[in-house]
Specification:
Layout lengths: L1 E8 L8 E6 L8 E6 L5 E6 L2 H8 L4 E6 L2
Antiparallel strand pairs: 1-2, 1-5, 2-3, 3-4
Length: 70
């Protein structure tokens, strides 16, 4: 897996949380992971088989993207 984007959510329920997108298309699960992390003890993830599902979920978050690796 490789992180392709990371940023900080800047509005809404998860404001201030870190957000990461991992590309695992060539890995064990395939698809993409979206991680939201507030602290080492608080966070969760989503898994998407296709990029279209990932993009649909990302519209729910206002994000200040700080890195772009693709």
């Amino acid at each position: 897996m490789s992180i392709v984007r990371k940023g900080i959510v800047v509005a809404g329920e998860y404001s201030g949380w870190n957000i990461f997108v991992d590309d695992d298309r060539d890995g064990d699960t395939g698809g993409y992971y979206l991680y939201l992390k507030k602290s080492d003890a608080e966070g969760f993830d989503y898994w998407f088989e296709h990029e279209v599902g990932l993009q649909a979920q990302l519209v729910d978050f206002e994000v200040d993207w700080i890195d772009w690796y693709i």
